[in-house]
Amino acid sequence: MGLEDRKVEKTIGDEVYSTWPMAAGKGREALLRLIGIVSPLAGKAISGGSKLEAFGSMLQALPSVLGADDVKYFCETFGPYSRVIKDGKAIPLVLATQDEHFAGRYTEMTEWLAFCIEVNFGPFFRGLIAKGGNAESIMKAINLG
């Protein structure tokens, strides 16, 4: 069974997208980059205060940990492992396709990226949560706290 045989489909906006897990080497690289972005945000979330205050702290921290290069990296990385279904045809979401497909559709682009992250790394993060139960123990489990 190949990786593409493990594809998952999701409707985002008016389109159906499919994605599947990346090969482990590329996945490890992307996971480490994602952890570098998520860990400061998780740190803000566990710093105390109400849920609204934690959310506000995370939003304030986001620009300092997520840049245009990160978004481009994840679009480039997930694109070859994703398709959008158009007129019954599965079209690879490589960068050239993304430029036209997501033009003016940034909500759909971010939902697609979140979908790719879920398919590739959801089990990893769910496993951490199941073992630790809270953000602080997750940070310790991945040696970031």
Short description:
By secondary structure, the chain is α+β, with helices and mostly antiparallel strands. The chain has six helices and four strands.
Outline the structure in words.
This protein is an alpha+beta fold. The chain has one domain (3-141). Helices cover 61% and strands 13% of the residues. The protein has a 4-stranded antiparallel β-sheet with strand order 1-2-3-4, with helices on one face. Helix 1 packs across helix 2 and helix 5 packs across helix 6 (135-141). The chain starts with 7 loop residues before the first strand and ends with a helix.
Specify the helix fraction band. 55-70%
Strand proportion: 5-15%
SSE string, helices as H and strands as E = EEHHHEEHHH
Please tell me how large the radius of gyration is: 16 Å
Number of strands: 4
Mean pLDDT: 85
Shape: globular
Strand order of the largest sheet: 1-2-3-4
Structural class: alpha+beta
Distance between the termini: 38 Å
Give start-end ranges of low-pLDDT stretches: none
Number of domains: 1
- Number of DSSP helices? 6
